Amino acid sequence: MRLAADGVRLAYGDKVVVSDLDLQLTDGSFTAIVGPNGCGKSTLLRALGRLLRPTAGAVLLDGRAITSTPTKEVAKVLGLLPQTPLAPEGLTVADLVARGRHPHQSWLRQWSSDDEAVVTEALTWTDMVELADSPVDALSGGQRQRAWISMALAQGTDLLLLDEPTTYLDLAHQVDVLELVGRLHTERGRTVVVVLHDLNLAARYAERLVAMKDGVLVASGTPEEVLTEQLLAEVFELEARVVPDPVTGTPMVVPVRRLRRRPG
Amino acid sequence: MTAVAPTRAPAAGPDPRRTLRIGRLSTAYRRRQLAVPLLVLLVLVLTAAVSLGRGDYPISVLDVLRVLVGAGDDTQRFIVLELRAPRTTVAVLVGTALGLSGALIQTFARNPLASPDVLGVTGGAAVGAVAVIVLGGATTAGRLLGGLGLAAAALAGGLLMALLVFGLAWNQGLDGYRLVLVGIGLSAMALAVVRYLLTRSTIQDAAVANVWITGSLNGRGWDQALPLAVALLVLLPVSLALSRVLGALQFGDDTARGLGVRVPLAQAVTVVVAVALAAFAVSAAGPVQFVALVVPQIAVRLTGGSRPPLLAAGLLGALLVVASDLVARTVLPESFPVGVVTSVVGAPYLLWLLVRGRRLATL
């Protein structure tokens, strides 16, 4: 067990967003968290990445409460990519990826040959070498996301949390980004947790889906187990047909219509 | 098939990352990050030498430099070291502190329009100083206090106001946007207090207060230089030590935390250092306009990169204040406040850099 939520309650001020949630993420797994807008999936991901402190329960990283582990130690094991990360104007891709080495550096050791090798490798692996000297703000949305993933790779963490990495991307670039994340998992053995909106892409790339509604974990299992017509009706209030994806055989959701909102 | 030239933005330019490794020490830099501060330092020394030579008894630049390295005749030594050096020293220290402070605050707030002014430092210092000038003359005790304590009152006012801004803006950490808004609100209130005090003052006091508010080096000497020098001796190394963390902090808070930065601590230290630098500078020479705002932006355009370089910003700040003082003393009528000139010199230069940058980008 690499990362686990143990009875966590998450709140912004007085507003409880997630209550009493348990979740175990095994080493080398690829999990997608899905659910309707406002179900608390991004909030859960923030807590798993120690950006939000649970008001009850605990997030355990390798069996130890993540909030009582020095943040720099966490940063060597767990990397995260926020939903819309900010890159300062004028920062080049190479500088951005180099910043991924921050947790491994110190006052004396600001740019070791290890750092340089890892960054070069990360740029090569994400196919960003040619864009290394370009400012991040001049990149297209898809390229920018590749740059951030490259930075996460340079951080060299076993675990990687991504919050909706495909937001604002066209379908081709969504597939491109998820292919890259999938390769991080299959080729580099990373444990990946990703919040995704697109159920078909989630089913295609993740080994395991976690469905949430109103701050509660509703279902967890393989895409086949989770993406049923009954669950779609219950969680997304969507009448839909689930057919095998003609390309991969994973479940594919074909929406029929929105179910009427229950009173209250 | 025609070859398509790679579309590289000019910002990247031919200035690659270089590496320096000595034993276990290692760092990366770009050539301009070293060349610009060195060049600015050289221009600063020459400008200061010119400034030290100008006055009722002109001394050539070479003679000034000779005095500065310990040679020269007694008359020249007296004039340069005893009469003129104190004022120029204050100019160098004030400029360095304001440039550094601006670079720190703009990096922290991720906003090129942020400056110590918006954190309430200037407003608070003005209330302190103007209160001493206006109310101090009324009583004997006040007059004594006014003579000794103008700088102290300004320092206390600036620090107290910044503390108030922090207190109101703090919400489980510092949000740059919230801090700037609170700062603007409280600065407006401070300005109202200053205006009220000015309406209650005699015309002579009002004139003195106005010169102080503009920022002036007239009559400044070792008394002002010493506290500022001590403050810089402590705060400059702290600022430079913060540089690495600032590199991560300039991303969003979430990303910085993900990289292992203790964000609230790093933010608090950055802002406290920036506020202290500004408060000491303002207490020495008044709120010299525009230096903290414009110098970091000029510095980042000279060195390239994504955030104001600290050392270059400090040196450029010193250069701007020394050069403006030179202009104020020689070109303009006697006792012209340096704060007017810094705006007049600094603003067009920034505009020129901006316009030139835009042309380069569209080429």
Structure in words:
The complex is a heterodimer of chains A (264) and B (363). In chain A, helix 3 (93-99) packs parallel to helix 5 and helix 4 (113-125) packs antiparallel against helix 5 (141-155). In chain A, helix 6 (171-186) links the parallel strand 7 (159-163) and strand 8 (191-195). Chain A has helices at residues 41-48, 71-77, 93-99, 113-125, 141-155, 171-186, 199-205, 223-226, 229-236, and strands at 3-12, 15-25, 30-34, 56-61, 64-65, 78-81, 159-163, 191-195, 208-213, 216-221, 238-244, 251-258. The model of chain A has no long low-confidence stretch (mean pLDDT 94). In chain A, the strands form three sheets. In chain A, strands 6-7-8-3-9-10 form a six-stranded mixed beta sheet, sandwiched between helices. Chain A has a four-stranded antiparallel beta sheet with strand order 2-1-4-5, covered by helices on one side. In chain A, strands 11-12 form a two-stranded antiparallel ribbon. Chain A contains nine helices and twelve strands. Chain A is globular and about 60 Å long. Chain A has a domain at 3-84 and 158-258: Rossmann fold (3-Layer(aba) Sandwich), CATH 3.40.50.300. Residues 1-12 of chain B have low confidence and may be disordered. Chain B is globular. Chain B has a single domain (31-356), classed as Orthogonal Bundle (ABC transporter involved in vitamin B12 uptake, BtuC), CATH 1.10.3470.10. Chain B has a two-stranded antiparallel sheet with strand order 1-2. Chain B has 363 residues and is mainly α. In chain B, helix 1 (31-53) crosses helix 2 (61-68) and helix 4 runs antiparallel to helix 7. The chains are: A alpha/beta (264), B mainly alpha (363). Chain A binds chain B through residues 46, 49-51, 71-76, 78-82, 85-92, 94-95, 98-100, 102-103, 105, 107-113, 115-116, 130, 133-135, 138, 155, and chain B through 6, 8-9, 11-12, 16-17, 19-21, 24-28, 110, 241, 244, 247-248, 250-252, 254-255, 257-262, 300, 304-307.
